[in-house]
Amino acid sequence: MKALAFLAALAFPLAAAAADGSAEAGAAVFRKCTACHNAEEPVNKVGPHLVGIVGRPAASLADYATYSEAMKAAAAGGLVWDEATLAAYLAGPKKMIPKTRMAFSGLKSEADIAAVIAYLKAVAR
Ligand code: HEC
């Protein structure tokens, strides 16, 4: 029993550190997005603002008028931006949603994708 409690005490802080660690790196990755997206203020550019994007249903901003039909269809099908769906979209926007208006080829590195998602969560706090 003592050994188990020790293992549990060891495991939890490590998991928390891994989940938080990359937001700073993600701020640098996000520079690839800032031409089209604001994540700090709810202000739309070419793309919809990304404040609170983790957990937000797709195509859900009432003041962003130019979502593609493809994105609206994905939203009607129940698409919500959680970490898994964001990772898939950011790896290959047109692989996930072939007719999306987002003119971005995708992030090649899984570490960059994890970092930018950590950043988007951190700025939403
Ligand atoms: C060239 C401009 C451009 C770049 C660069 C770009 N995006 Fe986008 N993004 C868009 C547009 C336009 C849309 C709307 C897509 C649609 O309606 O099909 C969009 C949509 C999104 C959505 C869905 C938002 C919603 O409300 O459903 C997310 C998430 C997103 N982008 C994240 C990113 C991230 C993160 C990056 C950088 C790694 C990035 N984008 C780079 C233009 C861009």
From TrEMBL:
Domain Cytochrome c: 21-124
One Pfam family it belongs to: Cytochrom_C
Keywords for this protein: Electron transport, Heme, Iron, Metal-binding, Signal, Transport
Signal peptide location: 1-18
Coiled-coil ranges from the UniProt annotation: none
InterPro entries xrefs: Cyt_c-like_dom, Cyt_c-like_dom_sf, Cyt_c_1A/1B
UniProt-listed PANTHER family: CYTOCHROME C
Protein name, as recorded: C-type cytochrome
